[in-house]
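Quick review question:
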């Protein structure tokens, strides 16, 4: 996605308006998928996803697009690969998860990758160190969102296919409010042109966001975050292939990406083994979503339940009725 954003910024250099365009397109994509699946949900339970969406992709999307403009697609992708370290650090702090030797080694690998990136000898002419700060800020917000989303997904009855568009709605609204405050009456000027320029990036954003929500509904942060962080390698690979002259992908950049991804995977494996005894999240799969659930299976791996025969989540009203008809079942469910 970072490479697609880089191409879009070439034709329309407006990161803030581009962030709004991407979020709008992604909202349309996820909304269409949700309408096609038609999962049942309780409107009163979607507000936590609005909060998560305001954090990311709300504020974080602006920082991400600005990072791509200032630091380039390849370097932004590598820096975003540090998200597992931040996400697991938050989980360790607030969930009292144990610290292991493997986790420390993984953290050291990520730091080594960042050191390799900081000591590059060759960088693009338009590289700005400010882009690194933008990328780090976006990474922290993404990590916070990952933990918030995982915590919500444990007990919510809202289907992932519904949660994704509501989150993007909050994100797009946050970016729009930022533009209104900073640009006042001219906040939407040039939106049509920007929308066309960011169409490929927005489509990729929407599809990836649907898969991301499916993954976090089924796997732990410590499992999904490192898998998502492999985008560093993909970002570097596509940058070298499609943006070779402008990105200047060198050995240190490749080495940094490999070290960061290896550290993220090691951190995830360490945290996952420590949490092996915890029960998995509920299955919120909706019928008719074979393609999305297959993608989620590749992300969640062993933690994902089979999509065949998956049921839509019960609404709160249906669950209350079932418990009133069979009180013993409700007690047994709470006991579990």
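Suggested answer, residue by residue:
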């Amino acid at each position: 996605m970072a490479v697609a954003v880089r191409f879009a910024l070439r034709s329309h250099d407006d990161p803030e308006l581009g962030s709004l365009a991407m979020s709008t397109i992604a909202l349309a994509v996820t909304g269409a998928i949700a309408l096609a699946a038609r999962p049942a949900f309780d409107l009163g339970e979607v507000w936590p996803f609005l909060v998560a969406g305001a954090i990311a992709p709300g504020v974080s999307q602006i920082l991400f697009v600005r990072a791509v403009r200032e630091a380039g697609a390849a370097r932004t992708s590598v820096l975003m690969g540090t998200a597992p370290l931040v996400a697991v650090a938050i989980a360790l702090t607030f969930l009292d998860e144990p610290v292991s030797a493997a986790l420390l080694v993984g953290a050291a690998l990520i730091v080594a990758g960042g050191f390799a990136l900081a000591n590059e000898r060759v960088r693009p002419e338009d590289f700005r160190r400010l882009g690194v700060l933008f990328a780090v800020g976006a990474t922290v917000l993404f990590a916070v969102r990952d933990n918030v989303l995982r915590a919500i997904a444990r007990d919510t009855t809202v289907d992932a296919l519904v949660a994704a568009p509501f989150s993007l709605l909050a994100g797009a609204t946050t970016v729009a409010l930022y533009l209104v405050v900073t640009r006042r009456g001219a906040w939407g000027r040039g939106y049509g042109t920007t929308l066309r320029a960011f169409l490929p990036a927005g489509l990729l954003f929407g599809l990836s966001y649907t898969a991301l929500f499916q993954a976090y509904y089924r796997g732990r942060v410590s499992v999904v975050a490192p898998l998502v962080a492999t985008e560093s390698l993909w970002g570097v690979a596509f940058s070298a292939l499609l943006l070779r002259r402008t990105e200047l992908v060198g050995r240190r950049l490749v080495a940094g990406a490999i070290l960061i991804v290896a550290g993220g995977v090691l951190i995830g494996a360490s945290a996952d083994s420590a949490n092996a005894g915890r029960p998995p999240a509920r299955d919120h799969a909706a019928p008719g979503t074979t393609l999305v659930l297959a993608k989620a299976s590749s992300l969640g791996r062993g933690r994902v339940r089979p999509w065949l025969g998956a049921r839509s989540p019960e609404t709160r009203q249906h669950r209350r009725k079932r418990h009133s008809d069979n009180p013993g079942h409700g007690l047994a469910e709470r006991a579990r």
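Why it works: Residues 2-100+125-249+303-335 form one domain. The two ends are 41 Å apart (CA to CA).
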